[in-house]
Specification:
With 231 residues, the chain is an alpha/beta fold. It folds into two domains: 130 residues, Response regulator (Rossmann fold, 3-Layer(aba) Sandwich), CATH 3.40.50; 97 residues, Arc Repressor Mutant, subunit A. Helices cover 40% and strands 21% of the residues. The chain contains eight helices and eleven strands. Helix 1 packs across helix 5 and helix 6 packs across helix 8.
Length: 231
């Protein structure tokens, strides 16, 4: 069953979403509503969400920042993200640059178009979930993604293995320098981590400039967002 999670303060948006998901196409979907950020984070922790509908128009003061923060969450990185925005092409472009997969203008929001956009994003999300997980073979020191063996350098494998031990949790560059490169605490150059993360993304991500598997958050570090098996 796919889970759709809506963050919106507006009951009118809830009603449009309910109408959009009332048909046969959504019989296998669970729809969750979050009126506050706290509720949203709680629901995201409790459920494996396939599609997030983010009503940025409910948060006009910091909508772009909110979109970036949601996309940076490990539990949200693999979900498809549909944003509802106020304004015109500039607002849409901002949301897409901040990590949205698709956008709709809330002023013209209707259940028919919302339903069609969500169906398209859910098809993509199901493809991702069907081709995961990332499998790390610790003893053989090898990695498979989507059934394909990924050739890694020894250091790249060590970095990925450490991240795979705590999927969904951010690990700081300082801690990675200790655990992967065995630098004493407080020493080492974070640029070393950034460079190896960049190389890993080139091998793991379909779009390294918009990573979905190996994600990062300023001041928090790096995390694997995908479900990972270790063997």
């Amino acid at each position: 069953m796919s889970t759709i999670l809506l963050l919106s303060k507006e009951s009118s948006v809830w009603n449009v979403l309910r109408e959009a998901t009332a048909g046969e196409n959504y019989r296998d979907c669970q729809v969750l509503l979050a009126p506050t950020l706290e509720d949203f984070y709680d629901q995201l922790r409790q459920h494996n969400v396939a599609l997030i509908v983010l009503d940025l128009a409910s948060f006009p003061g910091d909508s772009e920042l909110l979109c970036r923060r949601v996309r940076a969450l490990p539990r949200a990185a693999q979900a498809a993200l549909l944003c509802l925005v106020n304004g015109g092409a500039h607002a849409v472009a901002q949301a897409l640059d901040a990590g949205a997969d698709d956008c709709l203008r809330r002023a013209t929001l209707n259940s028919r178009e919302l339903s069609a956009r969500m169906r398209a994003l859910l098809r993509r999300s199901r493809w991702i979930s069907n081709t995961a997980p990332l499998i790390v073979y610790a003893h053989e020191r090898s990695v498979k993604l989507n059934g394909r063996t990924i050739a890694l350098t020894p250091t790249e494998f060590d970095l990925l293995e450490v991240l795979s031990q705590q999927p969904g949790e951010y690990i700081s560059a300082a801690e990675l320098l200790e655990r992967v490169w065995h630098y004493p605490s407080g020493s080492g150059d974070p640029a070393l981590v950034r460079n190896h993360v960049r190389n890993l993304r080139r091998k793991l991500e379909s779009d390294p400039d918009r990573p979905r598997l190996l994600i990062s958050a300023h001041g928090r570090g790096y995390a694997l967002s995908v479900d990972t098996q270790r063997r």
